[in-house]
Description:
CATH class: Mainly Alpha
Low-confidence stretches: 310-340
Number of helices: 10
CATH topology: Ferritin
CATH architecture: Up-down Bundle
Number of domains: 1
CATH superfamily: Ferritin, core subunit, four-helix bundle
Oligomer: single chain
Mean pLDDT: 88
Order of helices and strands: HHHHHHHHHH
Number of strands: 0
Amino acid sequence: MPTPDESDAARLLAPTTRALGAMHRHQIRREPWPDFDAFDPGAYPRELRRHAAWHWVSRAQAEHGSVHQFSAVTHALCEARAPVELLGALARLITDEVRHVELCGQAALAFFPEGGGDGRLFAWRTPRAPWPDAPEPPGRDVDAETREARELALRGWASRAILTACCLGETLSKPMLDALAVVATDPVARACAEQILKDERFHASFGWEALEVLWPTLDAGEREALQRQLARSLAGFERTTCGGVTIEDVANTAIEIGPSEEPNLGTLTNEQFAMIFFATLEAEIFPKLRALGLDPERAWRERGARAKGDGAKGDGAEDHRPEAAAETRADTAGGADAAE
């Protein structure tokens, strides 16, 4: 049981048994682990460390949400009798996300050790996916037509989840993590960003490859549902990633992210996040969506209506939080200052 002076984050990251710890480390710590004990809190101002800790614990919760989401997608595709190679790749994603939870969580606790018992700063939300639950599985005693219809629904649901979490979320996370590694002036923050970045490249690639496999198995109705989901997801990511910075605010401007001249523990400004978001949509995500058969321009035009209209009726728009991606920015609403 947690002790009164133990935060949610500290409890989730605490050791369990020697055997479980060995199993966990064998799967999770594939590369030299960052030396969190080497971090010197005295080298950085308290408020800078607290601000960074809030960002990193928010990322840890986003990664925890990804464990939850990819586990559900694996379950759905297993029930849909999808190709085993999809399941094997997803198993790797789940392991990676657990690894990211630990990296981000340990970074947060290292950066602000005096806050380990802060139940507000290090509070941990229960994971909740930004989309509805998977549809009913086929079951054992159903006729062939019913089985086919239910498996189609499961494939459609999984396709929408993969579109949101991987094709958008993980693809966006790559340049964001790259930027975090560049601006970080401390080796611990830099090592965490670099290790997660390596995995996110794989996750984004999985998303596009998986949709290429699933797309031909979807009928017209499921493909249209995927198109609608694209509009909702674009709205959600724009809201949670850009911190209120609009595309009009950054139009005809350029930004070059280089090493920070000031102490930085792996944080970016709203403007930097927004510029990365819009540039990645244009240069990488939209072309791949077109090649797949989706219409990103239509989705972009419809994103506001989807977020305010049918998206508010339980199909994911209003629940779209940073957890939908492994590394989109924690929403500034109720952020570090609000935890005081």
